[in-house]
Amino acid sequence: MNPNPVLGVVFHWLGGLASGSFYVAFRPVKRWSWETFWLVGGVFSWIIVPWAVALLMTRDLAATLQETPLHALFWTWFFGLLWGFGGLTFGLTMRYLGMSLGMAVALGYTAAFGTLAPPIFSGAFVPNVLGTTSGRTILAGIFVCLCGIALAGAAGLSKEREMSEEQKRVAIKEFDLKKGLVIATFCGIMSACFSFGLTAGDPIKAITQQHGTPALWQGLPVLVVVLLGGFTTNFVWCTILHIQNRSGREYFKSSGAPLAANYFFSALAGTIWYMQFFFYTMGETQMGAFKFSSWTLHMASIIIFSTLWGIALHEWRGAGRRTRTLVGLSLLVLVTSTGIIGYGNFLGSNRAPAASNR
Known about the structure:
The chain is mainly alpha-helical. The protein has helices at 5-21, 34-57, 61-67, 70-97, 99-122, 125-130, 133-161, 165-171, 177-200, 202-210, 220-245, 259-285, 294-312, 321-349, 353-356. It contains 15 helices and no strands.
């Protein structure tokens, strides 16, 4: 299959739309603790939907996983486990740094580590990235993306400065810059492990294609394993919270909670959340030799669409002119970064085969 970077960027935008939208589906959930609706949604996003989609879209899923070397299965699962820690500590990042600064720092680390670490560890960074025009163009796009993330963080900080002291205490009552930066660093690195898990799953991709799975769907069996790792971490943590808060009964006892609606919207949120990586794996297949750039495209798309949702839900209502300008600039820069990265991949896809192996 010949790569098509333009189509790849579109797929990554769709993935970003899913990631930036899934939490909206949780809004109608009533009288359930966080750990309850999070785990219900997670069962769908980490277990049910990945298996259902992979069984439907790929060939011989069970045989593919059985034929995969145990070390490849382990590392794919293990990086998913570490990614789960990133998701859990994301909330602590928000707690100590606030939404704006916390989001910018955590996603900045995630974009940088998740994009650059795989080619560095594989030894392809110097010859194939720094040593080619297409690779350097992609690096420029990654830098522009990080600038866009920084602008998004600056917009959030600007909005917080416009808040009254009472509003600030309510929003970030436990603000701690040093502690927050340490946790944000851990969160960013752990969250980037999803990218490492997808790379560790390359043997699974090769085996599923040997069984006749089209190249476009080769990443779906990998998601089954990576997301199982994420489920492991989140299941253990939610179980601990259930024990501490005695909230396990919420799955069965109404107590004024609309059970059917809660299950429906939690399942919907989980399904939408899974779709981000469904489109991510499709987009990755279109990026050719520079598939590592997919992670930056994913991060940029998430921020673009989550910011648009914030505007639609009036989260920026009352913001001053400077803040609104920063929001608009961040969106413009992030969209520009996806175009630059896509162009870099286009240049790479047009290189002669011999040049691509230098």
